Amino acid sequence: MKVLGACPLDCPDACSWVVTVEDGVATGLRGNKEHPVTRGALCVKVNRFLEQVGSPDRLRYPMRRVGPKGSGRFERISWDDALDEIATRLTGIIDEFGGEAIWPFHGTGSLGYIQGMEGFPGRRMFNLLGASHHRPTICSVAGTTGLNYTLGTAGGMDPEDFAKSKLIILWGTNPLSSGHHLWKFIQDSGAYLVSIDPVRTKTSERCDEHLAPLPGTDAALALGLLNVVVSLGAHDTEFIAEHTVGWPEFRDRIKEFTPERVAAITGLPEERIVALGERIARTRPTAIRASQGMQRHAGGGMALRVLGCLPGVTGDWAIPGGGLHYSTSGHFRLDDAALRRDDLLPHPVRTLSMTRLGEALLEAEGPPVKALFVIAANPVGSNPDQRRVIDGLSREDLFTVVLDHFGTDTVDYADIVLPATMQPEHLDVLAGYGHLYLVWNEPAVEAPGECLSTTETFRRLSRRLGLTEPALYDSDEELARQLLKGYDLDRLRADGFLKIQAGPVPAGKLQFVSARAEAAGHDPLPSYIPPADSGDGLVLISAASHYFLNTIFGSNPELRRRAGESSITLHPDDAAARGIADGDAVVVSNARGSFDAVAEVSDRVRPGVAGTTKGRWAKFNGGATVNATVAERDSDFGGGAVFHDNRVEVALR
Ligand SMILES: Nc1nc2c(c(=O)[nH]1)N[C@H]1C(S)=C(S)[C@@H](COP(=O)(O)OP(=O)(O)OC[C@H]3O[C@@H](n4cnc5c(=O)[nH]c(N)nc54)[C@H](O)[C@@H]3O)O[C@H]1N2
Ligand SMILES: Nc1nc2c(c(=O)[nH]1)N[C@H]1C(S)=C(S)[C@@H](COP(=O)(O)OP(=O)(O)OC[C@H]3O[C@@H](n4cnc5c(=O)[nH]c(N)nc54)[C@H](O)[C@@H]3O)O[C@H]1N2
Ligand code: SF4
Ligand SMILES: [Mo]
Predict the structure, then answer these.
(1) How far is the CA of 355 from the centre of ligand 4 (A)?
(2) Do both 416 and 554 map to the same domain?
(3) Any idea where the 4Fe-4S Mo/W bis-MGD-type domain is (predicted)?
(4) Is 62 in the pocket of ligand 1 (CB under 6 A)?
């Protein structure tokens, strides 16, 4: 039997997949050949997904902690005992501290609308209890907010239109590792390819040209390129007059960013900036692919805001194959409010920021956080300021419940662990953020042991708490129907995917001057905000690993073997200045913390920059990973994370 499903992982490609089931067991998994973006291929990680599903390490039963927090020592308990204990603890906490002392902390382990981050499963129950809301700031929010200021949407181009582009700028993005299905459209275009990245990635190596600016200086670079375009008179006066607001003011701002000044800010040769500006001036359509990496900086939101303006100056927004693609999420008009049911709240509640977990646990203002539900997240591995996160999770008076598939670094701090179903075992609906398709995930097999889906876990807990609100007991299929109002669910289910219609970009007039940005306390004009982490040392970028998906697969033996040891790439000049040679054991540190790595000396990174990857497990890496060095600091817009705005020192161990 073949069953159509969807990859749930936090990846733009949201692949449609086909599970082969024999005698109730999933024996094969491949990409759906019919899906125009998946085209039959998954990726190096998800090709091993069934290994994960059948792994002997998988959590199969509810467990209660028996050793100290962090020890990872647990005993098996029944679901009845687990639910009783959770219900008793929650009731006590609500009585003493109020509902807001509960934090449902959702991660990106699944981006499903029914079981994952997009739908916040359990939110209806938590609303009824008056729990704090969760703001997912860990990934893309700064860029989304910045683009919204400019475009009135973060939607952007249909990535399939990259096949029509003549010049493609891959700006702070490494699609060959972090979402490779776009590459087919890029190749089909035959366009001139430019990579803008402080690191020479797999993607940069396949481009015609690679520029390596200093991290966090992209907004200045974009303004400098526009300076060249405008001085050549190549701006599209007709598009500007008809579709934009604030051109005279923006034009003055652009004039401040001369190639000479921008060369000093970005560390790029002036003639390379001028040459790329000239190329943009004469090439229509020009498409920009920018993704989340380049906005993990103090000025990340502003950087995307400026990038959204660029095709507004050249008129590319009006040409198929021109414009910018960041995330297509803004185009999906799904009724997620109907899923969340915030109308069930007894009173307004506070919102807690995902990336300020350490702070919230250690020094919360207002009601303390007394109960933490970690749902498809691994904050010890993925959050900034690992040491403080661990200190917070170690609090004896904190009641922590973790729902997961594996015994992660975070599971080690749980009071109660609940085993969750994996994608072939539950129903879900996905929406790509790198394409315009809804993707259906039909359950294919039974879950092992006593694993339950997240929705079913919260239905059972609601019952245990004696809650009578009928909305808490809707089935997964009922939830999918509520979400997909206006789309043809039955067709989606039969075909496995359904292309949606993109909304207009820009939505209304493009705002060079943004009243909304001004009202939020920002510069009304696009500008440049420099990096925040100052001082000496190297700027450490910890980008996506080719072999892991965030911390997922971080315990898969074969992928760990292929990824090799935890490494840090140093430019030969920076290595020599520290007496470090290729292969040396080093310690990477700053005031926040440190982690061990092996030095790789290579000019793949520019001087002043060091490179590593995210996704490693602390318990396999001497107890700390790169996130021990990252600050719990907000980016400019939306309170986003600043993983790549991080200065470190590197020394021999
Ligand atoms: N294999 C794999 N795929 C993944 C993931 C994974 O962990 N592994 N993660 C998934 C997730 S959660 C996300 S959000 C996406 C993220 O995918 P990307 O958006 O690609 O994010 P990053 O890998 O953080 O960064 C991309 C590139 O930006 C560069 N960069 C960093 N700072 C700057 C800067 O200031 N300016 C410029 N121009 N470039 C900069 C980095 O060197 C890196 O090569 O990928 C998803 N896909
Ligand atoms: N240094 C550095 N750190 C980073 C980044 C970076 O660029 N650099 N990138 C950041 C980004 S972009 C992101 S999105 C975050 C991700 O951070 P998190 O959201 O914490 O994601 P993961 O670390 O992948 O942890 C997800 C967990 O969910 C579990 N899981 C998967 N599916 C399910 C499910 O259906 N149910 C349940 N209950 N559990 C499930 C997995 O087993 C895994 O343990 O990491 C961030 N961390
Ligand atoms: S991780 Fe991305 S590329 Fe790999 S199967 Fe999932 S959606 Fe496709
Ligand atoms: Mo992400």
Answers:
(1) 12
(2) no
(3) 1-57
(4) no
Question: How many separate domains does the chain show?
Answer: 3
Q: In this predicted structure, what is the pLDDT of residue 366? A: 86
Q: Is the CB of 556 under 6 A from ligand 2?
A: no
Q: CA–CA separation, 447 vs 465, rounded Å?
A: 25
Structure tokens at 261: 């000044």
Which residue segment(s) compose the domain that 130 sits in? 63-137+339-499
The residue to mutate among 48, 53, 138, 416, having the most atoms of ligand 2 within 8 angstroms of its beta carbon, is 138
Rounded-to-integer distance, Cα 515 and Cα 511, Å: 8
Cis ω before 248 (30° cut-off from 0):
no
Cα 608 from Cα 586, distance rounded (Å): 17
Q: Distance between CA atoms of 225 and 156, rounded to whole angstroms?
A: 20
Return the CATH number at 191: 3.40.228.10
Q: Which amino acid is at 324?
A: L
The CATH number linked to 456 is: 3.40.50.740
Residues of the chain with pLDDT under 50: none
Looking at residue 535, what is its pLDDT?
81
Whether residue 112 is found in the same domain as residue 149 = no
Give residue 252 CA to ligand 1 midpoint distance, Å. 32
**For residue 603, which amino acid is it?**
D
| Residues within a 6 A CB radius of ligand 3 | 7, 9, 11, 13-15, 42-43, 45-46, 179, 549
Q: Are 380 and 409 in contact (CB under 8 A)?
A: yes
Residue type, 99: G
Domain-ending residue, one of 452, 480, 499: 499
Check pocket membership of 171 for ligand 1, CB cut-off 6 A.
yes
Judgement on whether residues 365 and 487 belong to the same structural domain of the protein: yes
Neighbours of 33 (CB within 10 A): 11
Q: Tell whether 33 is covered by a domain.
A: no
Q: Residue 534: its pLDDT value, please?
A: 84
Any domain includes 299: yes
What's the gap in Å between 35 CA and the centre of ligand 3?
A: 13
